[in-house]
């Protein structure tokens, strides 16, 4: 939009008493919703994907969301842009939840906290803690929105911890005709809509289960022999409330083991020798050669759950920064076989790899969740931004993990085709059928959903 168009649009909207459309006058002058022109928001967090949507809206109220959804054609909700693929894109419009970011209420009696969809975990976790409550788990970073995380079944770690969506008690959703509906655990569509990939509408708020707050100590051990990791896999992954293994698959070892233990359950020191790994002597980044500035505190120093469960601290760039990610879920009882299958590819994997992380996630009942119906182990790859090399490597990893019925993380890179996805996610066809009833005009469909689910 040039300067004249901008001024014309502004004048129109001020005169009409509407919220300012900053660009795209023709598409916004007849309705509400702030449309923004910030080049930084036109890419995902990693910068590997540029959104194709022509218009980006930032409604500040639920009513504005309803009016936008009703008025616009093709559209997709956008959270904090942390996915590595085109899942949050739309051929026409994106509806960002950046301004729907408030902590709405804590209900101590029912053990719930209600937040707006665009609230990032790091925005309200400390407040929750100060009021005496905690969420059950967090992802490696606190920078992501609650709705965006739940929509893709984002997870942390822990053999008894389900993914973040498992804490959802209910959500409010704007359907394609603008109707606002509440869907709670008693609603038959709940297991489809919560991990909804943005296919059912725009979530405006979520009510999450909370529990009394707790402290966590984080201990890191280095150089775990791979043989020890595979021989004692279950014991190692159960050694804490949340455990992560980091490896670059070189030298038959796991370079770091991060053990996060609740002080109210296992406050004791694990000593210096952990299944052959030795206790780190300072805070470690998962990629040992990188600065430890951004990581959450370790060395067994207790701290509140929100400051220990994520690997990275709010206010710092998480992970490696310029990177790509892929992640694959296998049944936990096949984890050792799967890990060895990947390890056999170590020479191929090494060149584009920064680091692999291995975590556990408890089974859940969400139709599109990678952990649907099975306790899982996630094998994650943080990769260099060498797209050609990465996209050549992923099908090879997917083939190696195919015998284990591997399911991909929806928000990361993968190449598994629609027919295979349908085999691997037993309720995916029902998911698609139900999404069609919520969105008969296919407003929320985009290239990602069309190619991978709706074919
Ligand atoms: C550095 C880094 C670390 C990560 N660590 C982890 C990790 O530890 N564990 C893990 O599982 N994943 C991890 N991820 C992946 C990330 O958690 C997911 O990609 C998550 O979906 C990102 O949330 P977002 O708010 O950025 O969503 P976006 O990328 O903006 O959107 C994701 C999807 O959610 C939908 N969506 C967003 N908001 C709404 C809404 N209000 N209503 C309906 N649909 C909506 C979008 O349409 C889209 O389909 C990581 C990513 C990065 C970049």
Automatic annotation (TrEMBL):
<dbReference type="InterPro" id="IPR016166">
    <property type="entry name" value="FAD-bd_PCMH"/>
</dbReference>
<keyword id="KW-0274">FAD</keyword>
<dbReference type="GO" id="GO:0016020">
    <property type="term" value="C:membrane"/>
</dbReference>
<dbReference type="Pfam" id="PF01565">
    <property type="entry name" value="FAD_binding_4"/>
</dbReference>
<dbReference type="InterPro" id="IPR016171">
    <property type="entry name" value="Vanillyl_alc_oxidase_C-sub2"/>
</dbReference>
<keyword id="KW-0285">Flavoprotein</keyword>
<protein>
    <submittedName>
        <fullName>FAD-binding protein</fullName>
    </submittedName>
</protein>
<dbReference type="InterPro" id="IPR006094">
    <property type="entry name" value="Oxid_FAD_bind_N"/>
</dbReference>
<dbReference type="GO" id="GO:0071949">
    <property type="term" value="F:FAD binding"/>
</dbReference>
<dbReference type="InterPro" id="IPR010031">
    <property type="entry name" value="FAD_lactone_oxidase-like"/>
</dbReference>
<keyword id="KW-0560">Oxidoreductase</keyword>
<dbReference type="InterPro" id="IPR016169">
    <property type="entry name" value="FAD-bd_PCMH_sub2"/>
</dbReference>
<dbReference type="InterPro" id="IPR007173">
    <property type="entry name" value="ALO_C"/>
</dbReference>
<feature type="domain" description="FAD-binding PCMH-type">
    <location>
        <begin position="49"/>
        <end position="213"/>
    </location>
</feature>
<dbReference type="InterPro" id="IPR036318">
    <property type="entry name" value="FAD-bd_PCMH-like_sf"/>
</dbReference>
<dbReference type="GO" id="GO:0080049">
    <property type="term" value="F:L-gulono-1,4-lactone dehydrogenase activity"/>
</dbReference>
<dbReference type="InterPro" id="IPR016167">
    <property type="entry name" value="FAD-bd_PCMH_sub1"/>
</dbReference>
<dbReference type="Pfam" id="PF04030">
    <property type="entry name" value="ALO"/>
</dbReference>
<dbReference type="GO" id="GO:0003885">
    <property type="term" value="F:D-arabinono-1,4-lactone oxidase activity"/>
</dbReference>
């Amino acid at each position: 939009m040039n300067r004249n168009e901008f001024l014309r649009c502004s004048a129109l909207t001020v005169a009409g008493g509407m919220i300012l459309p900053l660009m795209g006058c023709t598409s916004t002058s007849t309705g509400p919703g702030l449309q923004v022109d910030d080049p930084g928001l036109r890419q995902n967090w990693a910068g590997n994907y540029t959104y194709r949507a022509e218009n980006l809206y930032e409604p500040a109220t639920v009513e504005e969301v309803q009016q936008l959804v009703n008025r616009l054609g093709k559209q997709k909700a956008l959270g904090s842009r942390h996915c590595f693929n085109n899942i949050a894109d739309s051929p026409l419009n994106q509806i960002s939840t950046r301004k729907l970011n408030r902590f709405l209420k804590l209900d101590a009696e029912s053990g719930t906290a209600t937040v707006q969809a665009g609230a990032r975990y790091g925005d309200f976790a400390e407040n929750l803690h100060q009021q005496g409550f905690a969420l059950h788990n967090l992802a490696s970073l606190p920078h992501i929105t609650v709705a965006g995380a739940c929509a893709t079944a984002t997870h942390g770690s822990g053999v008894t911890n389900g993914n973040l969506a498992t804490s959802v008690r209910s959500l409010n959703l704007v359907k394609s005709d603008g109707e606002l509906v509440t869907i709670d655990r008693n609603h038959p569509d709940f297991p489809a809509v919560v991990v909804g990939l943005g296919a059912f509408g725009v979530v405006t708020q979520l009510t999450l289960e909370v529990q009394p707050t707790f402290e966590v100590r984080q201990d890191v051990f280095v150089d775990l022999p791979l043989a020890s990791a595979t021989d004692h896999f279950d014991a190692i992954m159960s050694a804490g409330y949340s455990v992560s293994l980091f490896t670059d698959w070189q030298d038959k070892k796991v370079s770091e083991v991060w053990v996060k233990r609740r002080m109210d359950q296992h406050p004791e020191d694990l000593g210096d020798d952990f299944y052959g790994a030795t206790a780190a002597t300072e805070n470690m980044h998962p990629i040992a050669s990188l600065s430890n500035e951004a990581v959450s505190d370790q060395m067994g120093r207790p701290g509140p759950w929100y400051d220990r469960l994520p690997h990275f601290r709010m206010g710092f760039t998480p992970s490696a920064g310029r990177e790509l990610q892929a992640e694959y879920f296998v049944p936990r009882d096949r984890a050792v076989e799967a890990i060895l299958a990947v390890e056999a590819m170590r020479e191929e994997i090494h060149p584009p790899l920064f680091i692999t992380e291995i975590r556990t996630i408890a089974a859940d009942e969400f139709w599109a969740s990678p952990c649907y119906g099975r306790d899982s182990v996630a094998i994650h790859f943080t990769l260099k931004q060498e797209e050609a090399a990465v996209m050549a490597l992923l099908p090879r990893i997917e083939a190696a993990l195919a015998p284990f019925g591997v399911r991909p993380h929806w928000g990361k890179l993968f190449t598994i085709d629609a027919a295979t996805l349908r085999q691997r996610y037993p309720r995916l066809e029902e998911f698609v059928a139900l999404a069609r009833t919520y969105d008969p005009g296919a407003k929320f469909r985009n290239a990602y959903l069309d190619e991978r689910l709706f074919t």
